[in-house]
Amino acid sequence: MTTASPQRIFIVEDEVTIAFEMSDTLEDLGFEVVGPSVHLSDAEKKAANKTFDVACLDVNLGNGKTSKPVAEILRERSIPYVFLTAYDADQVDFIDDKDIVLKKPVSQQALVNAIKRAYSEAEA
């Protein structure tokens, strides 16, 4: 098991302002941000092909689209992720009991803690 912290974070968030605020926050804390992806098709491509340690996935990507396909790709690649949503976890049918879910709005500290937790659980 490694004790190293995650370095590269993939962000999927359809609200452009939120996506770039999250990116700026994580970069200010020393993380390297992959993305952000604001469209599902771009998120799926990056999830399948890019190298990163952890992903932050907005559940609702607008126009009836969700991050479920992205999470499925990440599961296949054994890359940990954190769901971000304005909904309660039990309102989202594809969230599993073992998934890490943060309710929006998310504080900087809660986001960092969840990223580190997802990474350490995957490394265990």
UniProtKB/TrEMBL annotation:
The modification 4-aspartylphosphate is found at residue 58. It holds the Pfam family Response_reg. It comes from Parvularcula lutaonensis. Keywords: Phosphoprotein. InterPro entries: Bact_response_regulator (IPR050595), CheY-like_superfamily (IPR011006), Sig_transdc_resp-reg_receiver (IPR001789). The keyword Phosphoprotein applies. The keyword Phosphoprotein applies. This is Response regulator. SUPFAM superfamilies: CheY-like. PANTHER family: RESPONSE REGULATORY DOMAIN-CONTAINING PROTEIN, STRESS RESPONSE REGULATOR PROTEIN 1. It comes from the Bacteria. Residues 8-119 form the Response regulatory domain.
